[in-house]
Each structure stands twice: as structure tokens, then as C-alpha cells.
Design a protein that fits this description.
The protein is an alpha+beta fold. About 50% of the residues lie in helices and about 20% in strands. It has three domains: about 100 residues, 434 Repressor (Amino-terminal Domain); about 45 residues; about 100 residues, no CATH class. It has nine helices and ten strands. Helix 5 packs across helix 6.
Length: about 300
């Protein structure tokens, strides 16, 4: 390739290339923010090549790859093409700041979680009130019946009371025994069904270096992601974000996927030190690239 051709290629910055791809897709910055869960100000900074405005050097490559994949570009190829233009993720800034900085993109999700937590606080109170009301009603009904039965006992003779009490006791014991047997049977049936659904076997088949097929009879599949070093991780189920975090060295996190999940996508900022398990079965990613996207099909 001639020097003139190299010069023409470098005129198109990585930020401009990403912006052009976004516009071609018809996405606005707000649309892209919803798709990637990356804050709007960081997306704008990437398009303007202002990488110093991102939380740290490590996030530059992770965010650029996620941006590229979301607008139809090959994120890995883009990082290779512009490798010299991007910060080195092994700099001191990466080592010192990843543990201190937190993803501000989690703020909106945390606010939503706070509202959900506030609602959950009132659920036990409401349940207690309902139970108390039911107990009061039951006591009142029992008292009314007891008063009525007491009047009948005084009118009846002693022999009639004895026979009636014997019959009621026998009927009560029979009814109680039948109910106990029915409850025990239902409990065994439900336990058997639960064990059948939850303990299904899982088989992982490798289609290529980054794509895996999982066969499982479990209704709710689980992903376990652990990191030997600091690692930025995001997980999407059927295209929707379900979890993302900057993992610390030696940490592990388990994600329970929705029951209708067909495809799970895992973006790793430090794939060389990451381990993935599906329902306890290890996924052999064998990564030679630091930044990698792993796809799991169910």
C-alpha cells in the first residue's frame, strides 16, 4: 500500500467511522445509549475521539468495541485497525483506576432498583395485615358457632350430647387424616416436578472460538462469570442488557437468565483471564484476544 493510500485511510478517524456507521443505521445517540447502556456523554466523546473523557484507558477499547458491534461493524477488526490510535490497556491508569471508577451507566439502573426495593418493603406489611384480618374473621366465626352449639347442648340430653360428640370427633379425625394425606401427596408430587425441571443435564458444544451451543432441560439457565484479574463484563439476553460490571480480581458472579432466552452475548474486556460456566458446565473459550465477545445459543 502506498504512503498516499495510508494517508487517506488515516484521515477517517475511529470516531468518524463509528458515527458514519450509526447514521447509516438510522440510530440517534439516544437510541445507541439504550442499546449499549453506555452513557450518552461517553458515546459523544468516542465520536469526537476525546478518549480522555472516558472513565479510564481500559474502558476505551471495551466501549469502542461495544459501539462498533451495535452499529454493524466488526469491533475486533476495528480495534486492530486503529490499535495505535487507542490507549494501552496495560498502562498504570488501567491498573489504578478500574478498581476506583464505577460505571456511571449503572446510576439509572440503581435508581430503578431503589424504587423497586421501596415497593418491596410494603409487601410484607400488606401480607401481615391480610393475615391478621383473616385470623380475626376465623375467630369470630368460630366463636359464633361455639355459642350456637353450646345452646343446643343445654337443650339436648346427656346421652345425645355424648353420641353427637363422638360422631363429630370421628368425622373430624377422618377429615383431618384425609387432608394430611392429600397434602403429603401434593408435596411429593411438586417436589418431584421441581427436581425434574431444575436438575436437567446440560451439554455445551463448541461451534467456533466464540460461539457455543447449549442443550439443557432446565427452565432457567444460569451463567457464572469469574475473573482472575480485573475485567469489564457485560451480559445481554436476546439483545437486552441483564448485567454489567467491572469485576475485581478473583471475583465471581452468577446471572439467572430469563426462561425465554435463546441467545446470550457476553462482552469481555479481559477475556484472557475470564472463565465462563453454563449451569455449572465450563465454556472453553480459549481466547487469544484481550477484548472478546462470546455468544451462547440455547
Amino acid at each position: 500500500m502506498s504512503k498516499q493510500e495510508n494517508g487517506n485511510k488515516e484521515e477517517v478517524t475511529i470516531g468518524r467511522k463509528l458515527a458514519n456507521a450509526r447514521i447509516k443505521k438510522g440510530y440517534s445517540i439516544d437510541d445507541l445509549q439504550k442499546m449499549t447502556k453506555i452513557q450518552k456523554k461517553y458515546l459523544i466523546a468516542i465520536e469526537g475521539n476525546h478518549f480522555d473523557q472516558l472513565p479510564g484507558d481500559f474502558y476505551v477499547r471495551a466501549f469502542v468495541k461495544q459501539y462498533a458491534d451495535s452499529v454493524g461493524l466488526d469491533g475486533r477488526e476495528l480495534l486492530n485497525d486503529y490499535d495505535a490510535k487507542l490507549p494501552n490497556t496495560k498502562s498504570d491508569d488501567y491498573v489504578n483506576k478500574v478498581s476506583e471508577d464505577k460505571l456511571e451507566t449503572r446510576t439509572a439502573q440503581n435508581k430503578s432498583n431503589d424504587r423497586f426495593t421501596a415497593i418491596k418493603k410494603y409487601i410484607p406489611i400488606a401480607s401481615i395485615v391480610i393475615v391478621v384480618v383473616l385470623i380475626i374473621v376465623i375467630i369470630w366465626v368460630a366463636a359464633a358457632k361455639s355459642s350456637h352449639n353450646s345452646s343446643q347442648v343445654h337443650i339436648s340430653s346427656n346421652s345425645s350430647v355424648s353420641v353427637s360428640s363422638s360422631k363429630e370427633s370421628s368425622a373430624s379425625q377422618s377429615s383431618s387424616s384425609s387432608k394430611s394425606k392429600a397434602k403429603a401427596k401434593n408435596k411429593r408430587t411438586n417436589k418431584s416436578k421441581k427436581n425434574s425441571n431444575d436438575n436437567g443435564e446440560t451439554k455445551v458444544t463448541k461451534e467456533n472460538d466464540t460461539t457455543f451451543k447449549v442443550a439443557s432441560s432446565s427452565k432457567h439457565n444460569q451463567l457464572e462469570i469469574s475473573s482472575g484479574e480485573r475485567n469489564w463484563v457485560s451480559v445481554m439476553a436476546n439483545g437486552s442488557s441483564v448485567w454489567q460490571s467491572a469485576q475485581q480480581a478473583g471475583s465471581s458472579h452468577t446471572i439467572k437468565l430469563p426462561s425465554d432466552t435463546k441467545t446470550a452475548t457476553i462482552n469481555l474486556g479481559n477475556a484472557l483471564k475470564a472463565n465462563i460456566k453454563v449451569n455449572g458446565k465450563k465454556v472453553d473459550i480459549n481466547s487469544n484476544n484481550q477484548v472478546q465477545q462470546v455468544t451462547i445459543k440455547f
